Task: structure prediction
Amino acid sequence: MTPNSLFYLLISIIIIVFLIDTLLDFLNARHYNDDIPNELQDVYPKDEYQKSIEYKKVNYKFKIVSSTISLSIMLLFFFLDGFAWVDHIARGFSSNPIVVGLIFFGIIMIGSDILSTPVSYYKIFVIEEKFGFNKTTIKTFFVDKIKSLIMMVIVGGGLLSLIIWFYQITGNSFWIYAWALISIFTLIMNMFYAKLIVPIFNKQIPLEPGELRDTIEAYSKKVGFQLKDIFVIDGSKRSTKANAYFSGLGSEKRVTLYDTLIKDLDNEEIVAVLAHEVGHYKKKHIIFNLVLSILLTGLTLWFLSLLIANPILSEALKVEQPSFHIGLIAFGILYSPISEITGLVINIVSRIFEYQADNYAKATYNGEALISSLKKLSKNNLSNLTPHPAMVFIHYSHPTLAQRIKNLRK
Result:
């Protein structure tokens, strides 16, 4: 394969992925006005359902416009030899491969962030605001971006530096050391995410003593789930949408409830949601997902090691001097079809796990309370009750609400 043919292969992959996603969005949009399944007739009052349809239509149009603009900018960057230009700037500061790589990706990241900020701003302060979801202030919006940027520089820059260093001293065997590094990092994040990362963006306070805490602790004791902490997070700081999640492993496991969840659901419904999360833990889904993530990371790095030293990757992007960072860009695009396939498999497994966690909540607590909570959350989030089957199959990590209710009532 010549550099020129590889260049057009990269362009083709980018365009094909865009067209597939656009087609799925189009098919999904055609189902917005479908009849509501019988199981979901009581989710929305008529006026609220029309509001949910309008919300979906606005988001669909917004995504089409923003993704088309993003594609156009990306293609323009490719055809104007943008990567060679950024590489030239980076090499003007240093000849050290690690420093050059950090500056290169720093410029790419800052440029991408500048271009994406207006899109994010419009999404939050126009669309989410219009439909009553937004609670984010302009100050919080920009403070979050600054914090995210600092974290990216420290964490992302640190990991990238070590990986390039591994490549410099071990050659194509770098993937083994990089895999070990990323695996350890992933394990630490799974263990201590709630302690290390969440406090940077949100306040977490222990759930106050009272009926809800007593009910949760009684349920945990009943199913033999040793719960160290129950925390409430100030999700209402940014949105009215509600959530709950389980984090940590072993002695570090904890349950976090959004304050919006406590506001929207009654105690029985909250414990039913918690029972679902406990089901994931009891069924070993947390461990399975962690192991799968680590194995897929190893597979990706191994593929990278087979191609990274090939100068054709840099030549295809019109960069004269082959380098790890340019090879990484080209590889990321070449690998994206495989990522789509592995993502599809992960979503299939995830939907199976969701059914299992629902069944656990039904068996150990109350299936109807879980159904009631799912309906309330869908209503309050203006969720899509009639997604296209293809969209569900490819992109949904959870079964649809109708599918979950049918399963719970079997």
